[in-house]
TrEMBL record:
Organism per entry: Tepidiphilus thermophilus
Gene that specifies this protein: dxr
Keyword vocabulary terms for this entry: Isomerase, Isoprene biosynthesis, Magnesium, Manganese, Metal-binding, NADP, Oxidoreductase
Record protein name field: 1-deoxy-D-xylulose 5-phosphate reductoisomerase
Similarity-based family: Belongs to the DXR family.
Taxonomic lineage of the native organism: Bacteria, Pseudomonadati, Pseudomonadota, Hydrogenophilia, Hydrogenophilales
Domain DXP reductoisomerase C-terminal: start-end pairs: 269-385
GO MF term list: 1-deoxy-D-xylulose-5-phosphate reductoisomerase activity; isomerase activity; manganese ion binding; NADPH binding
Substrates-to-products reaction catalysed: 2-C-methyl-D-erythritol 4-phosphate + NADP(+) = 1-deoxy-D-xylulose 5-phosphate + NADPH + H(+)
Length: 396
């Protein structure tokens, strides 16, 4: 059997590491042909030793030079390339069958877009790509015969709970009443709100159930992650915002649910480990060994659910509002959030000021229809500039 040729974008990150772990369990089935990162070249070197891909791409020139020298010293034949153009080129290369899109933030959009326009199978973790350009992206997937499989655990769970022939343009024909995205509630679900100004990046990045990159960890702590996921679900599954609900579920065992017309609720459950959705999407429609500890429901004991508190976590409300408004609003939300989270991680913005900065940025930006990917990227830059200038007036 011909092996499936993979490009793993964001291979040095948390999803990248989980993907490499699953892939390493199936050497007969997958061949890693490209690995990418922005600057962490040592992680990429380690992965090149294990998988000897044809290409390694780094965003930063110094990191690319360092990796090139190290590979030469060790006699590993991987070709090192550098920059955003090279990243898009490997994503669309004819010798790549499947692209694992696991870059964090808007930076992941151009290579994911290149993969969609080249008709690739795309395993999407980079939810920001859909938040920024969901309509254009879904259109490109359809027009170029690409295949999109969700890696986000909630969306992968919904995908598993929907019928195999589900068509996002006709949810009612499949009896789908609504979808319920579960959320752990993050590390501050029960923390007194008056102490939010004192929250440190270290506290925000200590998620109770998942081990993730720093940006998504902060997004989980503010619940913006769930807001971005609501927008992602809107594009993936074609339901209006009023039929996409969020449910706090602190155990993170039920990964999301679909409610049907007849009253049935179908859920996917499992140990919180990203290797499950990654293995599901990699093997689909077959099931692959993922190295994940089976879920022991007796040990879990209790499954709890509660509604989200939008006053405590205004980012979730802002995301729903941006989705309802449409046009450029979700792109503005995403850009302002990326600026706010980076500033918080650098000690330039207090945790409790993150939603305020996002809301102020949204209020100041013009509303536009974004009809091309270039217009999306240009609007993203504009929104970042606006958020940065508002941030300059903040003081941490
Ligand atoms: N972690 C999870 O459990 C999880 C679950 C569901 C969805 N996701 C989504 O998956 C994506 C990745 O999350 P993560 O937690 O794996 O993040 P992460 O650990 O921070 O890894 C991010 C990856 O993106 C690369 N990168 C960063 N900036 C880049 C740029 N400007 N250009 C090109 N590459 C860049 C990083 O390279 P360097 O390492 O060199 O900086 C790294 O390889 C996010 O969209 C997140 O929302 C993550």
């Amino acid at each position: 059997m011909k092996r499936e040729r993979l490009a793993i974008l964001g291979a040095s990150g948390s999803i990248g590491a989980s993907a490499l772990d699953v892939v390493s369990r199936h050497p007969q089935r997958f061949e890693v042909v490209a690995l990418t990162a922005q600057r962490r070249w040592k992680e990429l070197l380690e992965a090149c030793r294990r998988f000897e891909p044809r290409w390694a791409v780094l965003g930063e020139a110094d990191a690319a030079d360092a990796l090139r020298a190290a590979l030469r010293r060790e006699g590993i034949p991987t070709e090192v390339r550098q920059g955003a153009t090279a990243l898009a080129e490997v994503a669309r290369h004819p010798e790549v069958d499947t692209v694992i899109a696991a870059i964090v933030g808007a930076a992941g959009l151009p290579p994911a877009w290149a993969a969609a326009c080249a008709g690739k199978k795309i395993l999407l973790a980079n939810k920001e790509a859909l938040v920024l350009a969901g309509g254009l992206f879904m259109e490109a997937v359809a027009r170029h015969g690409a295949r999109l499989l969700p890696l986000d655990s909630e969306h992968n769970a919904i995908f598993q709970a929907l019928p195999p022939d589900y068509d996002r343009s006709r949810p009612d024909d499949f009896g789908v009443r609504r979808i319920l995205l579960t959320a752990s509630g993050g590390p501050f679900r029960e923390r007194p709100q008056e102490t939010f100004p004192a929250i440190t990046p270290q506290e925000a990045c200590a998620h109770p159930n998942w081990s993730m990159g720093r940006k998504i960890s902060v997004d989980s702590a503010t619940m913006m992650n769930k807001g971005l996921e609501v927008i992602e679900a809107y594009w993936l599954f074609g339901l209006p915002p009023s039929r996409i609900d969020v449910l706090i579920h602190p155990q993170s065992v039920v990964h999301s649910l679909v409610e049907y017309r007849d009253g049935s609720l179908l859920a996917q459950l499992g140990t919180p480990d990203m290797r499950t959705p990654i293995a599901h999407a990699l093997g689909f429609p077959q099931r692959l060994e993922a190295g994940v500890r089976p879920l022991d429901l007796v040990r879990v004991g209790r499954l709890e659910f509660e509604p989200p508190d939008l006053e405590r976590f205004p980012c979730l409300r802002l995301a729903y509002e941006a989705l309802r408004e449409g046009g450029s609003a979700p792109a503005a939300l995403n850009a302002a959030n990326e600026v706010a989270v980076a500033a918080f991680l650098q000690g330039r913005l207090r945790f409790d000021r993150i939603p305020a900065l996002i809301e102020a940025t949204l209020a100041q930006l013009p509303k536009r229809e974004l009809d091309t990917i270039e217009a999306v990227l240009e609007f993203d830059r504009l929104a970042r500039d606006r958020a940065e200038s508002l941030l300059a007036g903040e003081g941490a």
